Amino acid sequence: MKTLNDFDFKDKKALIRVDFNVPLNEKFEVTDATRIVSAKPTIIKILEDGGSCILMSHLGRPKGFQDEFSLKHIADKVSEVLGVEVEFVADCIGEKAEAAAASLEPGKVLLLENLRFYSEETAGDVAFAEKLSKLGDIYVNDAFGTAHRAHASTTIVAQFFEGKKCFGNLLAQEIESIQKVMETGEKPVLAILGGAKVSSKITIIENILDKVDHLIIGGGMAFTFVKAQGGKIGDSICEDDKMPLALEILKQAKAKNVQIHIPVDTIAADAFSNDANKQTVDITAIPDGWEGVDAGPKSIAAFDKVVNACKTILWNGPLGVFEMESFANGTIELGNSIAEATKNGAFSLVGGGDSVAAVKQFGFENKVSYVSTGGGAMLESLEGKTLPGIAAILE
Ligand code: AMP
Description:
It is a single chain. This protein is α/β, with parallel strands linked by helices. The protein folds into two domains: 4-172, Phosphoglycerate kinase, N-terminal domain (Rossmann fold, 3-Layer(aba) Sandwich), CATH 3.40.50; 185-382, 3-Layer(aba) Sandwich (Rossmann fold), CATH 3.40.50. The protein has 14 helices and 17 strands. It has a six-stranded parallel β-sheet with strand order 3-4-2-1-5-6, with helices on both faces. β16 (347-350), α12 (354-361) and β17 form a beta-alpha-beta unit. The longest helix is centred in the middle third of the chain and has 16 residues, at 169-184. The termini are close together. The structure holds adenosine monophosphate (AMP). Residues 195-197, 200, 219-220, 237, 292-293, 317-318, 320-321, 323, 353-354 line the site of adenosine monophosphate.
């Protein structure tokens, strides 16, 4: 696996695919610069080597050129975060971009215009990728968020950099974190899957059963498993058509010696609303008119034990409807348990969608080992798929 350390960037122009798809407010100000901050170590390392950086990214989903999606809006923020002057060029291929790249001096940063102003980007067009490739000497992919897409700048362009391509620090960290959970992690290995639906996580469950010793199934997903085993779940969310599959998963887990942990109690609400009435009930005896919306105290205690007995922990999906304050407790307590296990030496990875939002919202970001930057890319990795953006560097 080639990383930045395999190259000397002195007097070289690095063409870096970053993920600067940041949120902007109505004044076109960046409201969350996390993605820019995440790319900083890669950029600074190359500049310190004596190289220059040409940054390419997409922003939003424009249809052709649309001023509101121009990366010119973020140039000042990029400059502020990096602490380095950033030049912006209003195209990503062609004469203007080539001239700006050619005159870029060592230690300098150039930000290209939004790649998706060209439909060739998402189409993975080879001729477009070749035009991009003219801008730099070494291709660096540091955009995990788009690594599952075979787009021109994330995948196709790599073929024009035979022996001159590598992962940036961020992408390398993402790959290492996933490998730790899926391959090299210290045992016992635990995966915690929560969230709303079994159907969106089936492939992950099937893939992960071969990798883990323990699997916690929480959140809305759990009710399909509870009902399939004969429990009474009241008005809780459930995918009836997935009940046979849930039983099959339980059977497979047994055969593979994976211990499955399902909540034993739940906080039931009489409406899907923050100020609904609530009561703690056995998860197999939820009254009609009530729905399970959060993990109950016995489940939280049981999960805490499992989490603290494990050395490698993956967390994907909340244990309850955490967006509503009244039903966030289970998710927060799980975060506390994982933080404690991490403090005691476990490796913990949080990835894929809503658990990342929960971790940030409740302040666990610095108390877990790694928080993934890619939603879809993370889910596909957990499904066992090889991401095209990663494969293109390895080829
Ligand atoms: P996912 O994107 O699959 O990880 O699902 C995340 C969503 O699951 C969040 O919006 C949660 O509110 C929701 N969720 C978690 N637990 C429950 C539950 N018991 N009932 C309904 N929705 C839930």
